[in-house]
Model the fold of this input.
Amino acid sequence: MRIRSMKRPERVAVIGVGILGSCVGWNLARHGVEVVFIDEGQPGEGVTNWSFSWVNASNKTVRRSYFDLNVAGMAAYRELADVIGPDLWWHPGGHLRWADEPAAEAKLLETAELLAGWDYRVEVRTGAEVRHLEPALAVPDEVPVAFYPDEAWVQGRHVVGRLVDLAVAAGAERRFGTAVRGIGTRSDGAVRTVVLSDGSQLEVDAIVNAAGPNASHVAGLVARQLPMRWEPGAVTRVECAQVPVHHPMHAPHIEIRPDGDTSMVLHSREIDALIDTGKDSAELGRLLHEVAQQVVPELGNARITRTRVSNRPIPADGFPSVGAVPSVPGYYEAVTHSGITLGPVIGRLLAAEILSGKRDEMLADFRPERFLT
Ligand SMILES: Cc1cc2nc3c(=O)[nH]c(=O)nc-3n(C[C@H](O)[C@H](O)[C@H](O)COP(=O)(O)OP(=O)(O)OC[C@H]3O[C@@H](n4cnc5c(N)ncnc54)[C@H](O)[C@@H]3O)c2cc1C
Done:
């Protein structure tokens, strides 16, 4: 379906340069659009750098169209690694998940069966088998472990930097360390200018709101309401001589993944639940480190380098908000949780929509209009 007769934009401002903004901007720049990347901080230093960064669809069974979009996200990463090179950012090789109590174990096996029925690759192994893969794990011999071989993790900050560099080589402009404070529109409501906190003003044909947790504020600059959730998460990085495990994993009560050769990332939904009880980030980091040692005892020798609490960029109904907002010609949204998994596919689909005016069926359930009052 074609949504409007607006001509192909020549100059597009991408507001926010995390995984979403960099993926949309790179796709536009390589198709000849003049892209201006704007970020109030530095590219990739937002939630994208403080994410568990697990590329998956096994955790997305809540709605079939959402699962399909995430499967497309996984495929888009493999294509991206082929096109731009895997460099330091792409880490395929699978993901492990197990539980320590009967109800959670039954749920894990039920999900594995459902996913196998949807042609999603999963192998159920035992703890003893998994220790051949990961000898440092304290996992009981007989416990069933779901292994998802096509899942991966990415180093978000590195892939963002690479995409921005490639876009700049194709002519994109960088405006970092300056925030978008205002968006000017024409008499017909179409986007015309972007006003920055350094006092400058840019003439543009279109903008992409990829401001992550701040997307609701940026939407407000064109008088649009984008309701979003408050759902913060705490991530800790620990430094060790050599990483003791090599796969991302959901162990009981803790998620663990490598983050390079000497750094690990720790996260736990159970510890996220303590954020609003007033615990500070240092305390949350200590708790994460403590729980992680029950699964990987060697992490006792690791040192916490930093813990950060970030809000997840989740539209109110839990699903992505991606595409044009017809009431504001030239305004597009790219706002989503699971943005690490979805960045490359959303980047490709949204850039195609901006260039052609055509909506892709894959985004039908995730259009921004559903939030119009
Ligand atoms: C604890 C936690 C764990 C997660 N785990 C996973 C996971 O395992 N897998 C997964 O797929 N997803 C995961 N996510 C979600 C994922 O990290 C996010 O969906 C994704 O990183 C969002 O990227 P983004 O580009 O939208 O936002 P960001 O990376 O935050 O980028 C937005 C950018 O916008 C800039 N900005 C904001 N306002 C303005 C303004 N007014 N002017 C200019 N710039 C502005 C910011 O400086 C920032 O750089 C997790 C999130 C959290 C918090």
In short: The pocket of flavin-adenine dinucleotide is lined by residues 15-21, 38-41, 45-48, 51-54, 179-180, 210-214, 218, 233, 235, 267, 310, 312-313, 336-341 (CB under 6 Å). The mean pLDDT is 97. The chain has nine helices and 20 strands.
